[in-house]
TrEMBL record:
Pfam families: nSTAND1 (PF20703)
Species lineage: Bacteria, Bacillati, Actinomycetota, Actinomycetes, Pseudonocardiales
Gene3D superfamilies listed in its UniProt record: P-loop containing nucleotide triphosphate hydrolases, YVTN repeat-like/Quinoprotein amine dehydrogenase
GO MF terms, alphabetically ordered: ATP binding
UniProt entry keywords in alphabetical sequence: ATP-binding, Nucleotide-binding
Organism: Amycolatopsis magusensis
Protein's name in the database: Energy-coupling factor transporter ATP-binding protein EcfA2
SMART domains: HTH_XRE (SM00530)
Keyword ATP-binding found: yes
Domain (HTH cro/C1-type) ranges: 32-88
Amino acid sequence: MDDRLGEGWGTVPRAERPLELDGSLLTTFAADLRELRRNAGSPPYRELARRSHFSSTTLSDAAGGRRLPSLEVTLAYVRACDGDAEQWEQRWRAAAAELHVSTPVSDAGTGDDLTAPYVGLRAYGREDAELFFGRERLVDDLVARVRRQRFVAVFGPSGSGKSSVLRAGLIPRLGGTVLCFTPGSHPVEECAIHLARLAGELPGSVHTELAGDPRAVHRLVRQALAPEPASAEIVMVVDQFEELFTLCTDDQQRQRFLALVLTAASVPRSRCRVVLGIRADFYPHCARLPELVEAFEDAQVTVGPMAPEDLRRAIVQPAVRARCTIENSLLTTLVTQVHAQPGALPLLSHALLQTWSRRKGNTLTLAGYQATGGFDGALANTAEAVFTGLDEGRRTIARDLFRRLVTLGEDTEGTKRRISADELDDDPIVGHVVAEFVQARLLTQDRGTLELAHEVLIKAWPRLAGWLAEDHDGQRTQRELTEATAAWERHGRDDTALLRGPRLAVLNDWATRASAPNSKESTFLNASIAAEQREQAAKRRAGRRQRRLIAVLTVLLLVAATATVYATKAEERAVLERNTALALGVTAKVTKLSETNPSLAAQLSLAAYRLAPSPATRDSLIASSAEISKVALKPGTSAMPDVSGNGQTIIVSAGEQDKTQLWAVETGDVHPRAFLAGGAHASVSEDGHTTATTDRDKRVRIFNTENTGQPIELATLPGTYDSAMVSPNGRLLATSETVHEQPYPFNPPVWRFTGTVRFWGLADHRQPRETGAMHAVNPRSFVGNRAFATTPYIDPANPEFDDNSVKVWELSPDGAPTVATELQPSSAPPGVFHFSALGDTAVSAPEYDDYMAIWDLRNLPQRKRIVEKLPNKSLTAADFGANERLVALGGVGEISILDVVTMSDDGIRMKFDGVAQGVAFQDERSVIGVSLGTGTDVYAWRWDLDPETAAATVCTKRQFSILPVEWNAYFRDVPFQPPCP
């Protein structure tokens, strides 16, 4: 066949050497490559070289038929001819495998040389220590760590070789007695088995001891080492510690095992050191356990990726021990691929094992490595080869087997699961399937257990990954069935361990669809179904008998029931009436009792409310809870208390001492804080962050009181003033100056007061700016943050001079007064007129009239009264809730809560001694108040409007628990029921 050169090459084509088709694999492979080139239009080899970046000679030799070209050259040739690279890669691997498998075993040497120097997927063990290379520095560090500290945790990603480091690196270097095991599904039992062998005792008795005392491991170790020198110690290596979270489902057993190993390492005079091997992605699971977090401090060793030089030692030195060599090209390829891929050491070991089986003489070659499927494909090819060699029935068995051998993770990768021989059917076909995969070193068998050789198989074998992704819920259901079957077997197949109800239905439905339960699981399901059917049949028979009996007894029961109901109702009415009478009687006595014994009074109020809930007992409970937790404030004479609108800050100005004390209300308790200069008058903003005081020299100071313990004086106003008021948002200040007018010509003479109200902007609290002034008498308060209210001086002796109106002055954005709107609450002096923080609602109580009014102030100037008349309770303070629906009304000896929408007269009423000077809602469920009593007594109160919250306050604040004798004195004929358990 001629090699036709392309146009413009300017050289004479040379003929391609003809093939001698002898039917061999090589000549057939070469002939098909030439056919591929011919179908592509017979491009010259120089053109193919340009396309593939291989020389024309290399490409020509690939189709020469003398030897099998490398995989890279083959794929480059195919791509240059627009062929199917994936199909040709499979064909090349088949050819390479056939050519190398046909090499006589004798070519590889004899005797010990036939023992593989690589372990494949399984971890290196103590018996493989002479073949374990590349981790010398890490092992040295780990040995030093274990010798200087009693607890070490070794972390590493799956496939990083941490188990090999522990078993083939650390343990042979330690010497002495080493216990090495994995937790499994019953970690305490597993620990007991190994300790029993060490102590020469029965595992059952050791397990009982371990389950009962966290120090049991410590005692057993000391017992075992009693004949040894004092320096002798035992090292406990717990590998695959993550099984504590994947296989162990009993949280109590998990906590017990943790206590055992941690106590063994930390107890005084310990002779045990503990090393844990943990997969890195389970660190978050460990971090949820405080005892492990504490133990991990300065005790962690990380198994990271191997450096290139360490990888070379791990690859080359085992081969040297087996008197084999590694092709440089193979070594370079392996180091490059493994160094760039985390968790790849099991894949490397498996690929080396497969390559060793295809060695040429005593040399491991790149071609042999590529014939295995390469780094990524060797493991998958091995697994596929075993699987595809099975018939259809055995493949189904293999699928179900591998699903049992993996535990699916919730937020981690899947982990391998060790199963016992009891979980597999005693069937020769199942045994044959297991033997096939064990022989291929994909599964490992040890003392009646079976598990994956390594977890890397979960990701490296696509078919297995596909099985696991098919039905997560089904696999968890299968695991539940397996565990339930095992529990049934452990209890001697007792019927009480069988399933019933919805759980049985779910498992049976899965088994019907999946057809994957083993024979024991099927027996368990059938027994559960039969037991449930027997129970249902028995229930049906019992139901029929019961219905007949009911029919006979119905007439008799109707007669008896009628009499019983009548008697019961009569008894209930009597008990209710008795309880109500007792509760109301106790409530009447509680107010007086609270003066001398508030703790007993509060508990009696709570007991009365529990016995007969009603508005009266509820109010008594709320008042008693406030009484038991009230705080006495002693500022001195001339005290004027008030509370911020949010109920968080209390101010008490004391004129005699010319100072104002701050109190903080925190979690229901009142705490004294700092003092402010100025005690003639004080005002605080809604949030308690801004406070203004006026001293006896009429100087006004402004403070930042956000931190009540460390207030900051911000400014002093120029001039002198009688009082100062802070707006709810703390951005405006109003000061008043009062002067005397000439007396009117009456006998006796009458004096009238006039004055000026000035407004100050507090955008910069350190530099207050006067924004406006107005002539007014008796400044009342801010109406929200946008208006200000004043009232005239009232002279009761000369009503013709009285001006009883309340004026509301609109404030411009900068705080200057503009238009005044007049309110006319009554012909009587206005008395108390309290505005809400938003300025939308107000409550007024004329001084000499017998009613109160609620005002709607939202539409200026058309303000209107919502209610014309409400009973006047000597209103001295008021505050609206956040949504302005509830209003707290304070007066002499009482605070009541009123719903301004429904105007219900059945509101909450709290009794106390003194006069309310300030009230504030902390929230819709609690009110803070301050009251002024006789002399200099000032009290701070907290009323919990919710009865259950008030009950909790009573039980928290009580100084003692009520005694039976005290109970009987008030609740005669009622069994003793302590209100606070």
